[in-house]
């Protein structure tokens, strides 16, 4: 007697049809993976420098506004040491899931690699540039008691006292290179005094222990506005709104000086493109926020960077800084 399998045969076509309809949906969900609901927990921003410096302060302002956009906690973790190398390596080795990101910068991702060819991570291949969130220019400042009020007067003063004028700054990063480039371009005999950070150099400038420094606008601006130091030039292609009477280096005939430093978000290589795009849109939203722009302005950094391609800017700066390192002859410590 032939067995009746009619019930089974009736179910099978229905099951297969339903499965065929479900497979594309499942495949799409699988393709999105964890990116679909990103972020589902707190996001960490790795800052490879100690608390209190320009990288740290601007990163904390950025983190608070990014949290508002992502609707998740965003916090800064300082992983300092070896002039940024330790934190950079930590970020490079982090899981590429969008929850551990690097606050990159010109100093960190351009100057440091140009100066150090034996890093134990790849500063280009190990990171995906997401977007810049601020920029900062260098200011040339002199001690308040120095009888000069312009670059031209400073050069004349230094040439009249060869070897007796000292300029200080953080060693091995942009201010150091700016001082050495200034010496070359002006043919002045100025003694460089290395510091472990820009803060101590500013204090010694105020005290008259050194006569000149280059430092970030965000670090120097409060002292300029209070009259404790004198600004005589800014790097970059345009004057700064807070100190509109201070000319650019180009205006005083010193083109080729190290210029703008950019700060931005970077993800470990391998981070899903969907997460990178979500973060890029979030950074753009922060950059357009009036509250965020005001907060950055209070720090002395420029938030007008939403229209730049962060990766392209860093690539261009790598070429520029290879030339600057070669010209100055500065070696890694």
Automatic annotation (TrEMBL):
Residues 1-31 form the signal peptide. Keywords: Receptor, Signal. Pfam families: TctC. InterPro entries: BUG, Bug_dom1. Belongs to the UPF0065 (bug) family. This is Tripartite-type tricarboxylate transporter receptor subunit TctC.
């Amino acid at each position: 007697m032939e067995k009746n399998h009619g019930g089974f045969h009736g179910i099978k076509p229905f099951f297969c049809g339903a499965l065929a309809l479900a497979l594309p949906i499942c495949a799409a969900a699988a393709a999105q993976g964890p990116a679909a609901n990103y972020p589902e927990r707190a996001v960490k921003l790795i800052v490879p420098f100690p608390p209190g410096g320009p990288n740290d302060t601007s990163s904390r302002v950025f983190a608070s506004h990014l949290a508002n956009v992502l609707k998740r906690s965003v916090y800064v973790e300082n992983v300092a040491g070896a002039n940024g190398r330790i934190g950079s390596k930590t970020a490079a080795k982090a899981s590429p899931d969008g929850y551990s990101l690097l606050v990159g910068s010109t100093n960190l991702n351009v100057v440091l690699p140009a100066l150090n060819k034996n890093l134990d991570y790849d500063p280009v291949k190990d990171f995906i540039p997401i977007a810049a969130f601020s920029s900062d220019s260098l200011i040339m400042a002199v001690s308040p008691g120095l009888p000069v009020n312009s670059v031209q007067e400073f050069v004349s003063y230094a040439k009249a006292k060869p070897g007796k004028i000292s300029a200080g700054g953080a060693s091995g990063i942009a201010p150091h290179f700016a001082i050495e480039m200034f010496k070359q371009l002006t043919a002045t005999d100025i003694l460089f005094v290395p510091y472990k950070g820009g803060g101590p150099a500013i204090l010694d400038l105020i005290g008259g222990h050194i006569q000149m420094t280059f430092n970030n606008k965000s670090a120097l601006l409060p002292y300029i506005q209070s009259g404790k130091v004198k600004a005589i030039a800014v790097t970059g292609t345009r004057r700064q709104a807070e100190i509109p009477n201070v000319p650019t280096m180009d205006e005083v005939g010193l083109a080729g000086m190290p210029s703008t430093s950019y700060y931005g978000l970077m993800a470990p290589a391998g981070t899903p493109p969907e997460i990178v795009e979500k973060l890029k849109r979030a950074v753009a939203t922060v950059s357009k926020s009036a509250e965020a722009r005001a907060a950055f302005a209070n720090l002395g950094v420029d938030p007008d960077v939403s229209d730049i391609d962060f990766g392209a800017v860093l690539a261009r700066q790598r070429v520029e800084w290879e030339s600057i390192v070669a010209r100055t002859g500065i070696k890694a410590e």
